Amino acid sequence: MTTSSVWNPSAANFEMKRKSSFSLFNMQEPTQRPLPSASAEDKGKYDKLWKLMSTYKPNDVESIQKDVVANVEYSLACTRFSFSKEDAYRAASLALRDRLLESFNDTNAWYREQDVKRGYYLSAEYLLGRAFQNALVNLDLEPAFKDALMGLGFEMEELYPFEADPGLGNGGLGRLAACFLDSMATLSLPCWGYGIRYSYGIFKQD
Fold first, then answer.
1. Is the pTM of this model over 0.70?
2. How far apart are CA 145 and CA 139, in angstroms?
3. Within the chain, where are the H helices?
4. pLDDT tens per residue across span 11-24
5. What is the phi/psi pair of residue 190, to 5°?
6. C-alpha torsion 168→106→141→182, nearest 10
7. How far apart are CA 51 and CA 44, in angstroms?
């Protein structure tokens, strides 16, 4: 039996799963991002800033390619004439991270405005697995990214192995903790997972 969500993302005027609906394939423009509530003192002061940040990044192939190429030179400091498959993976992952951050920031801003109760889950380990392909699939962006990278001369299947496993867990307990996070996200619960930052790798269990 599933538990109903404590809130409805569509009622907050943004989508948790942006998916590929914002693309040139179906001629839909990105929806407007929610504006922050401004005090009387700040009213009008940040209008230009908010206007520039009022839309989501488009998910059409050419826009993704432009983001990847920009990341190659300006984020990774690589020459655009010569960069490795690992560089291509890192540039693509940054382009994906930007799209995740938009929804992440809007979600947290909505939580602050609604003053919701939050749950905090503490675990010594999380067996999350690799995040790049998982995030692409969850956002329904894998086909668009695949076509974008193919147009730049790279196969997605060749880039996945360059992601290092986080290595934050080594057993059933870590996998269970990761499943709890997945469940909380699926139910749109305002929860946060806390772990341990290991300096010398995860401890050995006997």
1. yes
2. 11
3. 47-52, 61-70, 85-114, 132-138, 142-151, 156-159, 172-186
4. 655 444 443 333 33
5. -75, 75
6. 40
7. 11
